[in-house]
Amino acid sequence: MTNHWRDIKNADLILINGANPAEAHPVGFQWFMRAKLDRGAKIIHADPRFTRTSAVADMYLRIRTGTDVAYFGGLINHVLQNNLFQDVYVRHYTNASFIVKSGFDFKDGLFSGYNPAKRTYDIGTWSYETGADGFAKRDLTLQDERSVFQLMKAHYSRYTPDVVSSITGIPVDQFNKVADLVGQMGKPDKVMTIVYAVGLTHHTTGGQLIRSGSVLQLLLGSMGRPGGGMNAERGHANIQGNTDHAISWEILPGYLKISAPGQKNLNDYVAQSAPKKSDPNSWNFFGTNYRKFMVSTLKAWYGDAATKANEFAFHYVPKPAQNSSWMSIYDQALKGKMEGLMLSGMTASSIGPDVNQVQQALANLKWLVVMDALPTTSSEFWHAPGTDASQVKTEVFLLPATHWIEKDGSFTNSGRWAQWKDQVMPPQGQARHDHWILADIFNRVKTLYQQQGGKFPDPIMHLTFDYKDPSKPELDEIAREINGKDLSTGKQMTSFANLKDDGTTTTGDWIYTGSYPDTGNLMKRRSGIQDPKTNDPTGMGFYPNWAWSWPLNRRVLYNRASADLDGKPWDPTRPGITWNGSKWVGDVPDYPPTMDPHDPKAWLPFIMNGEGVGRLFSNGMVDGPFPEHYEPVESPVTNPLHASNSASPVAFLYDQAAGRPNRFGTATEFPYIATSYRLTEHEHYVTQHVPHLVQLQPEPFVEIPWELGQAKGIKTGDKVRVSSKRGKVEVLAVVTKRLGSMTVAGQKVFQIGIPIHWGYVGISADADPNHGRYWLANALTPFVGDANSRTPEFKAFLVNLEKM
């Protein structure tokens, strides 16, 4: 989230796309209701299903899954064509005035630079025209035909209400009502928020689905402001913390890039990784400090072995030559190119797309380690229903790990608030903490290197492990290490602004620097609503002494954009930060605290970008500088905008094991759209072991539109088979009017809803005669990824439906 949960109460208009917060995030949903009841805010929910969120929304839009770029694109077009954008904000706080290089083009669904053989873009033309000073040229009148503003206006002019309706299935009159409400938000005293979840993420165009909402928010001047922003609802209590600490293969902690082949030293790494300054008034804070953050991280990892003479042990850091994202790992296993795998807190056999292939990938391994509190479909895959255990060569180790209630530590929620929690109960049985298991394995591997030698042992032998008990590190010790230390004084760091590149400072994750100073663990703070006047002095819901939020306890990112050119809040009733004549007050400023906004050299508001402003046009995405609608890989219709390039031309298509090409179906075989989702009563798959929750939602089911059920002779309680090109589920039907038909590209289409929570492990599966053999929802989903993130397309695929 650019903002945070409580801040949603400050919005005038709330767009919810790809999310069902009333059911999936019911505690956080109170702030939507506070906005509605206290401020009179309007809630607009766009979703394939009518849900409990829809029930309290002011408008519900039945949208075809995966078409949100067209929806947001239509709203962008409405705002641009009718001059409803926040004029001063757009001219001065976005790159609307930047001039794009000659040669950039878009035609028939393709941006300039496309290579059909490689299915990739050369993004050389996706950049700015520069002047003699090396900075981007700008036209603040926004009239230059090569300005971002004019190119964007032309690009989205195709997204008329009729076209939007044809793609999304939203009737024109309903879309126009939404457009009218959104168009009112471009005024300084209005602010809108967009809230989304994995319903936007899980597509081959997931990155651009989200970016299209961000572009709209920049045009309205709603980014960086209380009540505004682009706000992701994370799927678990600590998914945000996982991402921050580099659970994703392509980043290091704090969103530093993983080093790449050919980078021989830190200079190479920084030159190829850090953003470049493209405006004289851009602070480019990330780019300017990239080396300091990296050196301080290396110093934390390798201690005395990281010296200036050896480039702070930069050569120890892996430089992967190939993509190592989730699907790529299993693709390698399918091809017999991977020997072993460790799974911790996730089950590949349930959460992977095309799980029949994932099961085969696991069977191709020599060994598999599962670290989990309870048995999972991955730990038990070798004797799953229909599997001949004698043919599985994989040696499986189930290491009992503690559940989160059995340990202390921090959760970082969707709003970036790191909150320390207590241990509720001691570990049960032989369970050990995940970090103890990993520490034990690390120490054993280190001993083997000491005893037997091996290739390039230095990164293992020199890794710092300075804990009271190296086999059982305490989470409090790790939290102090993540914060970082000034080695010259021995004191804990208080700000990442003080990190250095000379080897005298450390950090485990620079964005968490300041969370644990010498005064104590700030994540434990609990000064909250017991005294609102004292604990929330601005009245905006910041509560600065409740827990700690990165970066530097800032509650709204890019909050310099919450004030006008003179430093006054766009809306005095909802200040983010304010210039009082000598300093910025309010939230922790995302800006130098004493920089006078009237200074000609004052930094632009989006301090992390090379441009210093929000990007309406960006070469940071590999599938296009402007979000564009592309059909899901499996779709019942061709793209009305460009039939010759219907789906994303750069979606990642895996060339799987020999003789096993991508398995995609057609609308002729599989005429119905399917999407997957979660239920309130279950947390992914772990709660299949919890009797009371199993009683609440005991059996898997699919939701079928009432009209389709009538045509198929299916009623609630009937057993049905839902099949795709990849697999099938055989479950009960729930026939409902929550789903309905829609007209898309001139034809009637139906969408089917599939909850994801069941498999062949747990109480319900044990009670089933077939032991949950055909309950894995992801047996249906395609093995294909977003071009940027390789996120699978879980939310839009084609199926057939049969009554059994």
Structural class: alpha/beta
Distance separating the two termini: 44 Å
Please report which band the strand proportion falls in: under 5%, 5-15%, 15-25%, 25-35%, 35-45% or over 45%: 5-15%
Largest beta sheet: what is the strand line-up?
24-26-25-31-23-29
Q: What's the Cα radius of gyration? A: 26 Å
**How much helical structure, as a percent, in the residues?**
10-25%
- Shape label: globular
Question: pLDDT below 50 for ≥5 consecutive residues: which ranges?
Answer: none
Number of E-type strands: 31
Q: Main sheet?
A: 6 strands, mixed
Total number of helical segments?
23
Estimate the mean pLDDT confidence. Answer: 96
Overview of this structure, please?
- The chain is an alpha/beta fold.
- It contains 23 helices and 31 strands.
- The longest helix has 19 residues, at 434-452.
- The model has no long low-confidence stretch (mean pLDDT 96).
Features:
five-stranded parallel beta sheet; 23 helices; 15% strand; single chain; 804 residues; six-stranded mixed beta sheet; alpha/beta
Give the SSE map:
Elements: E1 13-17, H1 21-24, H2 30-39, E2 42-47, H3 52-56, E3 59-62, H4 68-81, H5 87-93, E4 106-107, E5 110-111, E6 114-115, E7 120-121, H6 148-156, H7 161-168, H8 172-183, E8 192-196, H9 198-201, H10 206-220, E9 230-232, H11 239-244, E10 251-252, E11 256-257, H12 266-273, H13 285-302, H14 326-334, E12 340-344, H15 348-351, H16 355-363, E13 367-372, E14 395-400, E15 409-412, E16 417-421, H17 434-452, H18 458-461, H19 475-483, E17 485-486, E18 491-492, H20 532-535, E19 548-549, E20 577-579, E21 584-586, E22 652-653, E23 672-677, H21 691-696, E24 701-705, H22 706-712, E25 719-723, E26 728-736, E27 742-744, E28 747-749, E29 751-755, H23 763-767, E30 784-785, E31 797-803
Parallel strand pairs: 1-2, 1-8, 2-3, 8-9, 12-13, 13-14, 23-29, 24-26
Antiparallel strand pairs: 4-5, 6-7, 10-11, 15-16, 16-19, 17-18, 20-21, 22-30, 23-31, 25-26, 25-31, 27-28
